[in-house]
Amino acid sequence: MSRAVLSIGSNLGDRIAYLRLAVRLLGDSVLVVSGVYETPPWGDADQPAYLNAVLLAVDAGATPRDWLERAHACEAAAGRVRDPERRFGPRTLDVDVIAVWDADDQPVFSADPDLTLPHPRAHERAFVLRPWIDIQPYGQLPGRGWLTDLLNAPGLHDDVMSMEARRDLPLESTV
Known about the structure:
By secondary structure, the protein is α+β, with helices and mostly antiparallel strands. The protein has helices at 15-26, 64-77, 126-135, 147-151, 157-161; strands at 2-10, 30-33, 37-39, 50-59, 94-101, 110-112, 115-117, 140-141, 145-146, 164-165.
């Protein structure tokens, strides 16, 4: 059974509808969904706040490349347009493959520029780590360590404090 942690975020249009679209399109592969967090933009401050969540998905036959293709399909369905001038700019939907485990429950490591695994900046992003703890309190980012330790690293405290749990905006898996 292949397992993936996916991070989803939106800061344009009907943000919660785009997150729900991603969950719906990923369908029965979504095992569990974190809470939704409103977060300041990361990497490019001149844009609206994001809604972010993390999903744990499973699929018996999915490869890491399959997870990436599913992520891109969700973004395309949400009408995402990539602006090469603003790598961290606003978007209707962003779906990132954070980590993948193979059928033997071993983490997949990849240096492929199109799909680096684990995600090369996940350990720096409170908007990934904090929601991930919702669904895996004792989770680990392969090659980096325990989520709780990463979240307590210098530099992330202010990011965590700026996040707002949005309990009024639930996401649910279809399983």
